[in-house]
Amino acid sequence: MSNESTEILFRPGLEGVPVTHSAICDIDGNQGNLSYRGYPIEDLAAHSTFLEVAYLLIWGELPTQQQLRDFEAEVQMHRRVSFRVRDMMKCFPATGHPMDALQSSAASLGLFYSRRAIDKPQYVYDAVVRLIAKIPTMVAAFQLIRKGQDPIQPRDDLAYSANFLYMLTDREPDPIAARIFDRCLILHAEHSLNASTFSARVTASTLTDPYAVVASAVGTLAGPLHGGANEDVLAMLEQIESPENVLDYLEEAISKKSKIMGFGHREYRVKDPRATILQGLAEEMFARFGKDDMYDVARALEDEASSLLGPKGIYPNVDFYSGLVYRKLGIPRDLFTPVFAISRVAGWLAHWREQLGANRIFRPSQIYTGKDMRAWSPLEDRSIQVDP
Ligand code: ACO
Hints:
The chain is mainly alpha-helical. The protein is 56% helix and 3% strand. The chain is built from 17 helices and three strands. The protein is globular and about 75 Å long. Bound molecules: acetyl coenzyme *A. Acetyl coenzyme *A binds at residues 226, 229, 257, 259-266, 309, 312, 314, 317-319.
């Protein structure tokens, strides 16, 4: 095909280009509907647990009581990480970003479980269990290690989300806080072909091991255009300081064409349904544990921004209220993206399995813009200077 005819097909960032069939997640961005395997996100967040939703995403159906009990027991059994992984993390620089620590430690699991039998259902099940079980342990371990403390071992009497908060803070969490955190994990578990999920599928398509698949997705999620906006939302709210300053801030930002953090989404033209649920969770947290003053700023910003930017289809996204919930839960700001990864690993693994079910290696083409074929010249004859 000529460059001219491929140019017609070219969509920077693959915007709007379908690259797979998928039965995992559906988004209706005009109506603000999101479903996992056909179940509305509102029902899953209200009635399910994160592990139940992870099972649904990965195996396609909600588990029976027995299936869920078995899955929870397996995950609980595999929560611990080898002392060698913990020793490796102790060698990481304490000033490094927790996402880099997570990417390295997730990849290291491939060294410990190196049998690459991705065509065997038992291997797939074991890998799913290990990744879902160990990622939270590794996130919490690095948090303590970088503070010069020893990691806290998982507690078998605590459920998945409560155990993570316990390993992070060395305190058994309030049951309501643990449930709210579990609901946050449900909301972030899957969102079709975002950058990190696409990255997971590209890596999966080479038939490599699932630890490499998850490590590549973690690396992609780490970028500021993808996973990190909820950190920036908190910084922005603190900069605005009080509801009275919202209009001035907005008008200046809009006149300078700066982005309002936590607003806008490629898929949604209305408020992201996850933002609506997270706002409710923030209110539940504040009712029980005391208000965060930044919530008033956030609400004023949502009101003003929705009238100024709403006509362009720009409304709060999933990141707008999540940082306020996480801060109230005692999660440090630079762990917001690793917490996102703890949840999204369920979606990545669902896409890993789906990719393997009908695999074709991803190998897109390009439009070449370089030199025409030319003659090689010996070193002493070269005169063209190029700054490296
Ligand atoms: N604030 C102000 N204006 C915005 C915003 C925003 N947050 N988002 C989009 N716009 C405007 C743009 O300025 C542009 O206006 P123009 O047509 O007059 O030039 C128009 O809307 C289209 O913007 P794009 O950046 O092209 O929209 P795109 O769909 O590519 O971007 C994105 C989506 C990246 C999420 C964008 O809205 C953004 O940067 N938001 C802020 C960062 C953020 O909250 N990211 C988290 C996303 S959710 C997630 O990844 C988990």
